[in-house]
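hey can u check if this looks right to u? its 171 residues, i copy pasted from the old doc so theres a chance i mangled smth
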Amino acid sequence: MKKVRTILFALVTTALFLAGCGSPFGKGKEPSLKVYSFSGENDFISVSNGVIILDDEDEICYGGNLKVDPDEFVDIAAYSVTIYLDGNNEQYPLLSNSVVDLSGGTVNAPRDIGKIAGDIIKNDNIDQWNDTLWIEVNTRDLNGEEDTYQLQLEVTEITACPEVPPHVSNG
């Protein structure tokens, strides 16, 4: 199932890139498509396969996969996961989700962080994402003890549509 999801994700990302970069957008204007990947790990949590896609119309954040230290995440009754930009002493959430077990039982930490699309990017300086993109995982166990785990994520620009020079006729 993971292999199918990975292949499907690669196909969708490639299709978005080809569709966004290969065709004119509007009257003579080329679309602006940028794709970023992010990941990171520390002793307690690890994030892989995170993707942010930006174009002229959409902003999409795929949170990727989350792995947690099973010795730290024991008897968890509630958790929240937030991916955010940290700049100017403010946090700008890009994606957040949470789970609470109201029956008195426990929940498993998420493996898939989730996805969001829309007007989510509040930071104009995209070039500085590598220094400002974070994930925070908050947990509460059955005894009511709360823990917070933070991790700075490493961001890599996968691709950007190159500027296409004006068409030169051969005739």
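Residues 16 and 33 are 9 Å apart (CA to CA).
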